[in-house]
Amino acid sequence: MNDQTILKQKRGWTHQADNRERLIAAGSTILSEKGIEATTVKEIARRAGVSPGLFHYYFATKDELLLAIVYEAGARFGEQLMQEMRGVATAQGFSERAMFAVAAVTRRDPTWYRLRYELYALGLRKAAFLPAVAQMLEKGRQGIATTIQQYTGMDEAQAQAIAAIVHACTDGLALQYIAQPDLDLTEAYRQLQQLFIVKES
Questions:
Q1: CA–CA gap between residue 110 and residue 73 (Å, rounded)
Q2: Which domains are present in the chain?
Q3: Which member of 7, 80, 115, 146 has the greatest number of CB atoms within 10 A?
């Protein structure tokens, strides 16, 4: 029995607890590089070290995997954002740093936005998938609004309105950065930051 046979036996005999996570990690890398249309289930499974059949045990389609990847990437983006904002406890601190924290995380790891654009495109191509896109957008807006209220004490209606603007602007700025990595968007983020300052005064 050679090493290859032993490896196959170790991989194939059970559904390991981390198989789903490995598929998500492999899918995230490939989908952010190649897009959903150019990516195959076989390629994702091979990168994850599992069989294509095991892929379908966890995910019915690539579309379903993309949704899981986007939620996972979103959680990771949120954690990185909280690290950037660590130590901010006042409304003034939030107003000075919030958008620049988003910009810093976006520059370090644009994968989150690349995957979001894949999801948006999928929703536009497949009407049945559009509710999942709408749900993700709603969750994002609500998270932003809650954060704004928490730091600034702004009323809910104002926070919701600003959250919708911030959500759209950060998506658009990230797309510009991905398309033109040398583009300096500092002033754009600075102008966006003014939304919080104006609402607090």
A1: 10
A2: 1-59 (1.10.10.60), 62-200 (1.10.357.10)
A3: 115
